[in-house]
Amino acid sequence: MRIFRPLNGFFARLPKIKPFGTTTSNTSLPAVRALWGQSFDQLPGRLLAAQRHNFSTMPEILDSQADLDLYTPHPRVRGMTTLDRAAFTKEVVVPALSVKKDILHKVAKTIKGVLLQRPGLKRVVEDPGDKGKRLILLDPRQIPADYSLGEAEQEVLKSFDVSPEVLKYNLELTYDNFKVEEVLQAVLPEGQEVTTAFSRIGHIAHLNLRDHQLPYRHLIGQVIIDKNPGLTCAVNKTNIIDSAYRNFKMEVVAGEEGSMITKVKEHYITYEFDFSKVYWNPRLCTEHSRIVDLLKPGDFLFDVFAGVGPFAVPAAKKKCVVFANDLNPDSHHWLQHNCKLNKVGGKVRLFNMDGRDFLEGPVKEALTQQLASKDRKHALHIVMNLPAMAVEFLDVFRHLLDGEPGGTDLPTVHCYSFSKHDEPSRDVQERAEARLGTSLEGRCSVDLVRNVAPHKEMMRISFRIPAEVLYKEQPSHAGVQEPASKRLRPSEEPPEQTEKEPV
Q: CA 463 to CA 43: how far, in whole Å?
């Protein structure tokens, strides 16, 4: 650091100069940099000041904008629609300590609370003024404006015989050093909502962008791929989910366009499918587990809208008897594939039918057989995960079975539904009651599954099908008269009774 000593007196007499703001320059260097000449430009990182007197009396005052510079890309990226990574390169000033190499790690460990914390940035760099030392970079948010350290840090440095003098280091930031939200907040118009959330389906990022974000969709998709290792493709939904096949049209906005076939894991079970042709939502992971946890080995599960098997496959792994159906032929194909993939191919009965036909056919037949058994010990569960319209299928259960109720342990239905009502629980219950033709008050539970959108909730109503709903009414024998041919006419006398001879 000897090269700085002749300049100490000169800099002490300079007026206090603030760094340039990010709105006027692509650097945060103070204006005084111009006085230092080009000799500093050859250094890998440049020290702006290196005074060896007591650090607490340094004349430079750190502007609050310098703190923001570390977390804000250059303003020239505003409005960018095609990603230009080089445009994010900028220089900022950060505080630093000069420490001998042999005690470097010990010092860094004891003052870790004030170390620089940025993705992809080294916190230890070469000291251009002394080859036997290194510079430890500090977080400007943790250092006061006068570049002074707290008493605790001073004591630590004193114990290691390290000068408490805080230096200013000129640091280069690149695109790699900024987080997703920082990049997008810098690019999108000011004041507009920035959404960084997405669903991860294997190597695919599924976005659901709002209208004001669509002009930037290719950039947003590429940034999300760049910042999330393992992602190679980003897609954006272009229409609502089809109510019949439960899939939607999508646009590839960044990355590979070749294959939508992906692989995911959920609760240690592997699923493979073509995401462009079937429905999969990782946000339902907890709900899948919640229902499967209700099941015991030997229980029956009737999955009316099975998709690629997130209820059916784990239930089969749990040694339940599973009937799984889906109308979408692609879902049926991947459901069959996932059963084989998880070695439960022979334990699941698969169907490719309309949900109503499935309930009135295979489900009715199985329920009739099971409810007629007097020694049945296993529970019966029916899952109806088609929230856009599953409630409309509940009328199938009205008088579905013949005969008398075979016991109190009737099938339990788990039916999913969307609701935009102010009271979604009441809304879903009332709609279910209307389809069943009976009250479920005190006989059901309605739970929130997830928030789908503002003022739109996904709910689940669970109830045991009432016997008066499930079974047909039996004709009553009370007050039934005999046929006319068996009744006496008013003018007729009853026949004489004769004694029977003993046999």
A: 73
**Quick check: helix, strand or coil at residue 249?**
coil
CA–CA gap between residue 171 and residue 135 (Å, rounded): 12
Q: Which of 52, 70, 63 is nearest to 166 (CA)?
A: 52
Q: Which DSSP symbol is given to 392?
A: G
Identify the bridge partners of residue 70 per DSSP, sorted by sequence position: none
> The domain 279-470 belongs to what CATH superfamily?
Vaccinia Virus protein VP39 (3.40.50.150)
Q: What angle do the packed helices 180-187 and 217-227 form, to 10 degrees?
A: 160
279-470: same fold as 195-259? no
CB 27 within 8 A of CB 9: no
- pTM summary value: 0.73
Domain ranges of the chain: 2-179, 195-259, 279-470
Taking 60 as the threshold, does the pLDDT of residue 9 lie above it? no
Which residue did the predictor score with more confidence, 495 or 274?
274
* pLDDT per residue as tens digits for the range 98-144: 999 999 889 888 888 889 887 778 889 999 888 899 999 998 888 88
How remote is the C-alpha of 8 from its chain's centroid?
A: 55
Distances (CA, A) of 477 to 8, 401, 467, 468, 483: 113, 21, 20, 18, 14
132 is in an annotated binding site: no
Rg for the chain (alpha carbons), in Å? 37
- CATH (one of 2.40.30.60, 3.30.300.110, 3.40.50.1820, 3.40.50.790) for 195-259: 3.30.300.110
172-to-43, 74, 120, 122 alpha-carbon distances in Å: 12, 12, 12, 11
Residue 396 is given by DSSP the state G
pLDDT for 503 equals 37
Q: Is 191 annotated as a binding residue?
A: no
- Ramachandran angles phi, psi of 118, nearest 5°: -140, 140
Asked if residue 157 belongs to a known ligand binding site, the reply is: no
CA-closest candidate to residue 388, choices 446, 456, 463? 456
User: Is 385 annotated to bind ligand?
Assistant: yes
- Angle at alpha carbon of residue 204, lines to 200 and 207, rounded to 5°: 65
CB-based contact 373:379 (threshold 8 Å):
no
Counting runs of H as helices and runs of E as strands, what totals does the chain give?
14, 18
Distance, CA of 192 to CA of 220 (rounded, Å) = 14
**327 annotated among ligand-binding-site residues:** yes
